[in-house]
Specification:
The chain is α/β, with parallel strands linked by helices. 31% of the residues lie in helices and 28% in strands. The chain has a single domain, classed as Vaccinia Virus protein VP39 (Rossmann fold, 3-Layer(aba) Sandwich). Helix 3 links the parallel strand 1 (49-53) and strand 2. Helix 2 packs across helix 3 (59-66).
Length: 195
């Protein structure tokens, strides 16, 4: 599947009904999700089991399944978001397991993790448990972070290594009352980390 077709399909994924600012529930834009997932697909990293940590309404999990991942599991602490994710997967005709779980309680093994963890705007360091859980449960991690995170991530991941990283745009739609613009474009970094 071409990246543009994936983006068009992912535009059907519904967002949060009542986003929680403390969980930094910003919907991953379809354009960015398609870009990250297509990159993972081209690396051959979406062939086995894929986990989406902090899956929200299922954007990355559903996209991984659309690109042919054998098994996809989305984990999130927000039950309402998981309900929306299940409806989104059904609407797009894909089979994804959605599991209610705290990020630190995730067990098992996945070939690849895809995730858009909190950037730490509300709680500094909130991306750290996501990175730890991803590295504990998978061989390859694709993760979206604030621009300027490279030095921190390089040190934080220990023996794991960053094989690829690049900067791209995240079109963040106005989600909370304190947002001033309808769409804010922020620079983010995409990482491929191998354990």
């Amino acid at each position: 599947m071409k990246q543009r077709k994936l983006e068009i399909l992912l535009e059907q994924v519904g967002g949060f009904e009542s986003p929680n600012v403390n969980l930094e529930q910003y919907a991953t834009p379809a354009l960015l999700a398609a870009e990250v997932l297509h990159f993972a697909y081209m690396q051959g990293d979406l062939e086995g089991t894929v986990s989406d940590l902090g899956c929200g309404t299922g954007m990355l999990a559903i996209g991984a399944k659309l690109l042919g991942a054998e098994k996809v599991i989305g984990f999130d602490i927000d039950r309402k978001a998981l309900e929306v994710a299940r409806k989104n997967a059904e609407k797009l005709g894909v089979d994804v397991d959605f599991v209610h779980s705290d990020i630190t309680d995730i067990e098992g093994h996945a070939d690849t993790v895809v995730m858009n963890p909190p950037f730490g705007a509300q709680t500094k360091g909130s991306d750290r448990p996501f990175l730890l859980s991803a590295l504990k449960t998978s061989d390859v991690v694709y993760s979206i972070h604030n621009c300027g995170s490279h030095n921190f991530i390089s040190k934080f991941i220990g023996d794991a290594r960053i094989t690829d990283w690049y900067t791209t745009a995240f079109q963040m739609k106005r989600t909370f009352k304190f947002h001033k613009k309808e769409v804010e474009i922020i620079k983010v970094e995409i990482y491929r980390i191998v354990r």
